[in-house]
Amino acid sequence: MLRQIEGSRAVAESVALCRPEVICAYPITPQTHIVEGLGEMVKSGQLKGCDFINVESEFAALSVAIGSSAAGARSYTATASQGLLYMAEAVYNASGLGLPIVMTIGNRAIGAPINIWNDHSDSMSMRDAGWLQLHAETNQEAADLHIQAFKLAEELSLPVMVCMDGFILTHAYERVDVPTQQQVDAFLPPFAPRQVLDPAAPLSIGAMVGPEAFMEVRYLDHQKQSQALELIPELSREFRDAFGRDSGGLLRGYRATDADTLVVAMGSVNGTIQETVDQLRAEGMKIGSVSLCSYRPFPAEALRRALGCASEIVVVEKCVAVGMGGILSMEIRNALSGLPLTVSTVVAGLGGRAITQKALRAVFQRAQFGQLQPLTFLGLNENVVSRELERQRDRRHSGPPAENILRDLRSPVCP
Amino acid sequence: MPVTELKFYQTGTFTIGNRLLGEEDRAGQSAANRANSLNCGHRACQGCGEALGARYAIDAAIRASKGQLVVANATGCLEVFSTPYPESSWQIAWMHSLFGNAAAVATGIAAAMKVKGRNDVRVLAQGGDGGTTDIGFACLSGMFERNDDVLYVCYDNEGYMNTGVQRSSATPPAARTATTPAMGVEPGNRFGQGKSIPLIAMAHQIPFVATASVANLRDLEDKIERATLMRGARYVHVHVPCPLGWGSEPSDTIKVARLAVETGLFPLFEAEFGALSGHTAIRRRVPVEDYLRLQKRFAHLFRPVVDVARIAHIQAIADHNIERFDLLN
Questions:
Q1: Which chain A residues are closer than 8 Å to B58 by Cβ?
Q2: Helix H segments across A178-245?
């Protein structure tokens, strides 16, 4: 049924329809509304057969989910930012053990400086942790991806992160079609674990593994992610047949087939990019875009097919590998190696900085004429940066940089 | 117990299976049908107190739960020596996740059992003192506070033995470890205020808290059996000597453990809902010196000269315990 609801609420309802049996909750902005919604549904009796546990940290949240999943219960949690880092050890553990936990990430920057707004630094920091990572473009897709995620996770016996942009999606009220219980039940079978802690059939799970087998166990995870490259599009097709709309898949092109310039991005910024593409198309520029939904597994082949015919690739990414540059663009360069095209990195929207059509338009036009630098920080205030660098050159005790920059921004001389 | 003529020293103690006694008076471990949850062939050191404590504790829990037991294990000696892949000494449903999360993993297992309607399955978490008093403390306290249906057993060997004998917050004052070397003005570990997890557990008002020792295995079995059958959060803290880390003879493990009890350094007590409900009286009080002298980790207290002041300080700790828990009565 179509309803005008908050993104977090849509995700909470969608997760509830998947009949989770254990939910662990620890508050962190901006994912909190999701677990609040689920807590309410469990407490009111709307979501039956589910234990909702208020834990003392994110590390405990995922650890509880590890225990409940290993004991055969469909398990869910959600986190963001510092919370994801605090549970990092358990993130690797859940995938290493092959436990099909589903976790929502309300994507948010990582401090210091402390910042609650959206970028992709948090989930990116766990890109090698062995989880599948799916990025939602809209709230509808965020809701739908959770239904696909449980099926995907349980099919492969690997955990899945569904990433949705903090605030931009989690707190936005949009029209979302929340499916019915019958629809979801028909799509998602009950959890049949590959391994389960059962006194009647005792197993040791999590044994010490030495050099003789460790690489094989890791390779198996890599293999399973490769299987996911086929399973994700299959599930997306199956989902379309059952629910009548496109959600998920590895990636989606927008006016991409005949484009000379192609923009690649993950998550909600694709909306802004598509509108900018429309404008530039109207002005005669042959531009299109590709929204990458599956970041892990990384669909190198599909990207090569989707981007290979263009001459200019612009990767707009909400994260930065400090001291190196773009993360997504590095992987895309790798996927496109040997093709006669240029890949430029545009680092944008860090810590929630608005990504405007105007700024994107200027960047895409520069790319069209081959004038875009290999690495651009979109909307960077170079004035305040040079002032701080100057201060650090001049004075030994130049003080805390973030606070200096905030002060400069308020001073009449700058920017 | 019927009057039985005792011919051997061991039959008069609480320490072994008492196979010389009649069936009904024997420890569970000497029964022919004992579970052997932690089977032979594991790689613990000779004289390992933790292996002994864990075998008795888990077999007792298996008996009490009629075999319906799932165990979550913290990283540490116990996990490492029992499960080098692909061999496992565990004959039970057993899981290891991380060093600091055994209590939380057990909470998850208990939650799953609850939603699956498996009320017959009991969940036990276990770890060493490092995984309990230090890195796993937050998860443990969270599990207590929520009163999750988990029995947590800590095997306290007073240090990080698996990584090569480093200090933990359970390491006693003056003890030499790799990170509190026996050198300088005050050799060995500093004299702090201590960190008693049993007392901290009691402050959470959980249904059951107890201490136990491998010197008194009948008592350990009894406490674990009772704790297994209770609901809510329960905690049993077991004192387990480590010949490697303590520098004691492997053949002296039980003796050292008994001296810890009889000096008053490791009091045996139990508590329900935050209030003390019982203790085991010291049968033969001994000075701490008898305990310290058997362990190389305290050798610097006696050589080159006897460190009278610091031995007196340790004696004062023991005396305080005896008074606090009324251990002579």
A1: none
A2: 181-187, 214-243
Which residues of chain B have a pLDDT value below 50?
8-16
More confident residue, A121 or B30: A121
What is A2-243's CATH number, 3.40.710.10, 3.40.50.970, 3.40.50.300, 3.40.309.10?
3.40.50.970
DSSP run (H or E) holding B128: strand B122-128
Given a contact cutoff of 8 angstroms between Cβ atoms, the answer to whether B282 and B259 are in contact is no
**Six-digit token string for A52:** 């909702």
Domain boundaries, chain B: 34-324
Sheet with A287-292: strands ordered across = A251-254, A287-292, A261-265, A312-317, A342-347, A375-377
Percent with pLDDT over 70 in chain A: 99
pLDDT (tens digit per residue) in B187-210:
999 999 889 999 999 999 999 999
Burial classification of residue B247, based on how many CB atoms lie within 10 Å of its CB (0-12 exposed, 13-18 middle, 19 or more buried): middle
Comparing alpha-carbon positions, the chain B residue that sits nearest to A52 is B111
Please name the residue of chain A whose CA is at the shortest distance from the CA of residue B143: A55
pLDDT at res. B84: 82
Residue A340, burial from CB neighbour count under 10 angstroms (0-12, 13-18, 19+): exposed
SS3 A346: strand
Return d(Cα A254, Cα A246) in angstroms, integer: 13
Residue range B219-228, pLDDT digits in tens: 999 999 999 9
Interface pTM, i.e. ipTM: 0.96
Class of domain A251-377: alpha beta
Ranges in chain A annotated CATH 3.40.50.920: 251-377
- Which of A60, A70, A209 has its CB closest to that of B104? A60
Q: If one looks up domain B34-324 in CATH, what number appears?
A: 3.40.50.970
